[in-house]
Design brief:
The protein has about 550 residues and is α/β, with parallel strands linked by helices. About 40% of the residues lie in helices and about 15% in strands. A hairpin with a 3-residue loop joins strand 7 (about 245-250) and strand 8 (about 250-260). Helix 6 packs antiparallel against helix 7 (about 290-295) and helix 8 crosses helix 9. The longest helix is centred in the N-terminal third of the chain and has 49 residues, at about 5-50. The N and C termini lie far apart (about 110 Å). About 40% of the residues are buried.
């Protein structure tokens, strides 16, 4: 045997031992890295939960739901008259109302990956406002608002919970669950009301239908759920098409009252992402998000149908008032301005900025949020019949021959653009109050855009001829909007879709509704509380302003 072979054989066990030690060392390091990864993964998840999916603690003191009653002197009754309500429900009673008083239902609907507690601050503010309204109604004895509001028997505020943890299976299924929940809540409270009424008066056997009103507040995806639910609620009504109410169970007259959305993607997310992305990326993200992603990224036709089909639009038109809140200046990463306020860069639909007198006529209020700069603009779109728009096109019959073959050659992007325009106009024709909000001062991080790279806004061109100051007035900043004027949808979209001077961290989606949780996010999102306080006041006032003599009367239309 050669000397080299002997040396090699003697070294082999030594090399194997060394390699074994190296492998053991690597395994140990791998285990340490795995442990470190799990720890950091937990920290990252905690961080994301705090900033992306924050919610208010359901054990908060705000969740102590009670039924509040008030006597003839306007003072709250004693502890013996106070009963706990079921979770997620607050009932405010007006004991001075007549026995056949109206019952007002208001349903608060959370959004994607949300919880019933997301709108807890708003619900609490509404309960406080309703309590104060009933107290003032019982203290004053005039013949103005009191004569209408005092016919209200109670207000039921309910935070919908059927979609908690179930927001990925599509708008249709989520909306259907909200519909079932609305029906169930109404039936349960009507049954309880009848039982209490029979206990008070055994001889009174009610034969006339009970009058109720239905209002909804949908946050984010909850707005789409709500729109779907009301369409199906109207579809399943026992009333005739000409009736002003929905007849439920043959004994409940339901009138649509107030419909409000906050940062809802009415036009979907496709074409409205925070940073423009190619269609292929939208398709991929939509599929990852499940059926809900397919809906909002418009891989299905549901969003388009809900914005253009009369079976969805007519029930929405039946509400006395429609309100849409939208974040401006790229402060909402999830739902940008144009889809939340259904604006379109090609739409010329008129949006009115009203004088103080006209604002009162349409139910608008100048609130503290508007005075301190959070509400940068409030617009009102005139209600129109879609047939008016179609009739204006009849004089252009010769265009049809050109459009039909051209549509066959149209690219997908062009088709999508035309669809978005039609969807935007169809929604505007219902008549809305649009509130544009700037929450940048409450964002934790904001950067002032240098003048060198700042993109100058095209401004807002007022088309109003009511006053010299607003006639053909070029407005470079939304802060300089005239008090009276008319603007086109495309001008508003250009003015508010990008930051004018300050780029802020886009946490406005949760700040808008004052979503609350313990920790840093509580400080950030509580900046929206003044907005929710004023929204609560407006909605409660509008709910109680429902007149049984004119149950479906709209606020004054804008000419």
């Amino acid at each position: 045997m050669k000397k080299e072979e002997v040396v090699t054989r003697t070294r082999r066990p030594t090399l194997l031992a060394a390699r074994s030690e190296s492998i053991q060392s690597l395994r140990k390091k791998f285990d340490e890295l795995s442990l470190m990864f799990e720890e950091r993964k937990g920290s990252v998840k905690k961080f994301l939960d705090e900033f992306s999916q924050p919610f208010m603690d359901t054990s908060s003191s705000f969740n102590n739901n009670t039924r509040m009653s008030f006597g003839d002197n306007g003072e709250e009754l004693g502890e013996g008259e106070t009963e706990e309500e079921e979770e997620h429900t607050v009932v405010i009673r007006n004991d001075n109302a007549p026995k056949d008083g109206v019952i007002h239902f208001c349903f608060l609907v959370h959004g994607y990956n949300g919880r019933p507690a997301d709108l807890l601050y708003l619900r609490t503010a509404m309960a406080n406002e309703a309590e104060e309204e009933f107290r003032s109604l019982n203290c004053q004895r005039d013949e103005s608002f009191c004569s209408i509001g005092n016919k209200s028997k109670m207000i039921v505020l309910y935070s919908c919970q059927s979609n908690w943890g179930r927001t990925s299976d599509g708008v249709e299924k989520g909306g259907a669950r909200i519909l079932d929940e609305i029906r169930s809540v109404i039936r349960d409270h009507i049954q309880l009301y009848n039982e209490e009424k029979n206990d008070d008066d055994d001889d009174d056997q009610r034969t006339e239908p009970i009058n109720i009103t239905v209002s909804l507040i949908g946050n984010s995806l909850g707005g789409l759920y709500s729109r779907y639910a009301i369409a199906k609620l109207a579809e399943g009504s026992d009333s005739s098409p000409n009736e002003e109410f929905l007849l439920l169970d043959g004994k409940i007259r339901a009138y649509f009252n107030i419909f409000c959305t906050t940062a809802t993607p009415h036009l979907g997310i496709s074409g409205h992402t925070y940073i423009p992305i190619p269609r292929s990326a939208e398709i991929g993200i939509g599929k990852i998000m499940g059926q809900t992603g397919r809906d909002i990224f418009r891989l299905s036709d549901l969003i388009k149908t809900m914005c253009t089909c009369p079976s969805y639009l007519q029930p929405l038109r039946s509400f006395r008032k429609r309100i849409a809140y939208a974040n401006a200046y790229k402060t909402d990463f999830v739902v940008p301005t144009n889809t939340a306020a259904f604006l379109n860069p090609d739409s010329t639909y008129p949006h009115h900025v009203l004088s103080d007198e006209d604002r009162n006529d349409v139910g608008g209020v100048e609130n503290s949020s508007q005075k301190n700069g959070m509400v940068v603009a409030t617009f009102h779109t005139p209600q129109r019949d879609k047939r008016d728009r179609l009739s204006s096109l009849r004089n252009e019959e010769f265009f049809k021959e050109l459009q039909e073959p051209q549509s066959l050659l149209m690219r997908d992007d062009d088709k999508k653009t035309n669809e978005l325009l039609d969807m935007s106009v169809s929604m505007d024709e219902l008549g809305w109050k649009k509130v544009i909000v700037d929450v940048r001062e409450h964002m934790p991080v904001s950067i002032k855009i240098p003048k060198i790279i700042k993109k100058r806004s095209s401004g807002l061109q007022s088309s109003s001829s009511d006053t010299e100051s607003s006639n053909n007035a070029e407005v470079d900043s939304a802060d300089k909007l005239p008090k009276i004027g008319t603007f086109e949808s495309r001008d508003i979209a250009n003015a508010f879709s990008s930051p004018s001077d300050v780029l802020a961290f886009p946490l406005g989606h949760n700040t808008l509704v004052a979503v609350e949780k313990h920790g840093l996010s509580k400080t950030v999102f509580q900046g929206g509380r003044p907005l929710m306080d004023e929204l609560a006041r407006e909605i409660v006032e509008e709910i109680l302003a429902w007149d049984p003599q004119c149950p479906t009367s709209m606020t004054k239309k804008v000419k």
